[in-house]
Amino acid sequence: MTKELKRITFDEFASNLALFFKQVIDDHETVVVENDEGERIVVQPLPTPTSERILTEDDYLAFRSAFGGWADVDTDSLKKAIYESRKLSRPPVNL
Q: What would the pLDDT profile of 17-53 be if each residue is shown by its tens digit?
């Protein structure tokens, strides 16, 4: 079950910035701020290094197993194909 987001008015947010920053940063709470016209923004915490995924030995093994995976690719043909594809999908630049 999803948690209901906290919704507040812009005036309430503006008058209590320190309180709402504390809730967002310390309590990891997401706050939706809405103005009189109904426009909204979402204020939420950014992930911190402590909340990032910790890599395991399996992750490192998977990374190492990919080493050399492109060794048999003809890089000149690959670059030519990329540039040709770009000509088809991008309009020319006229300066």
A: 888 888 888 888 888 999 999 899 999 888 766 556 7
Q: Cβ neighbours of residue 29 under 8 Å, at least 6 residues apart?
A: 6, 23
- CA–CA distance, 39 with 62 (Å, rounded to integer): 45
State whether the Cα torsion 13-16-20-21 is positive or negative. positive
Q: How far is CA 22 from CA 31, 46, 63, 80, in A?
A: 11, 13, 38, 53
Place of tokens 């020319």: 92
Domains and CATH numbers, the chain: 6-45 (3.40.1620.10), 54-89 (no CATH)
The 10 Å Cβ neighbour count of residue 64 is: 9
